[in-house]
Write a structure and sequence with these properties.
The chain has 274 residues and is α+β, with helices and mostly antiparallel strands. The chain is built from 10 helices and 4 strands; from the N terminus they run αααβββααβααααα. The chain has 2 domains: 53 residues; 203 residues, no CATH class.
Amino acid sequence: MSKTVEADAESIRARIAELVSTAEEVKLSPAARRKVDATLRRLIADLEAALGRLDPVTMPLAVFDPSNPKIIGRFTALALLAQERVPLSAVPAFYGSGVYAIYYRGDYPLYAPIRDTETPIYVGQAAPAERNARSARDQGERLAARLNEHRKNIAKAESSLSLGDFEARYLVVQSGWETAAEDYLIHLFRPLWNNETKLVFGLGKHGDAATTRANKRSPWDTLHPGRKWAEATLEDSRSPEQLDREVEEHFRRHAPVRDQGALLEAFFMELRQA
């Protein structure tokens, strides 16, 4: 039986070599070459799978690589979430760049599902002042300044939001790892105010003149008026009623993370290799 299997395998190998040789000799069109390429790649995948089934020793599903930027981003994000929350209005001046999360615990009806949960309403990063900054002093006051900017914008929306209802976590991070951590935080929480979630975005938007651009009011400014430059824009990008429906649907699809136990379980689940 083993000799038959070896002979069949050798025959297949010879046939593949013959097909490749023929393909090299014939002047294939780009489309035909792509089809041959795709077919051979599927064949390689099938052979790799067959080898795996024949090997009596099981291959791991993945090899954990601590140097992978995505892994570093996850652990940096977890380190941020381990920090104590502080009132957004009381964030002091400090050196350093890094990542942060802003939490809402007020009575605005649309945000009720995230009240008293571990799900932030907004997450972000602040890159260092100098690209190769090594120390927190070299990084500048970037993280504190970014949080202070958000504080000022939220304070302007006093008709719908109270600054006292906001808390923040922040973490000074070694230069270069802010983006990886922010990406994971957005992936994990899908915060309402982040641009990537495509819902109530616009908190970080700066004044754009509607007279010089066909600019529309951001969803954030539609729900939370107060910034004078935003009130001067021509029209809302989406109506409050549409935003209400979209946010409700968002929470149906993406339930908030209720507590740190659920947060850790979500983190662990993404690290499991089973």
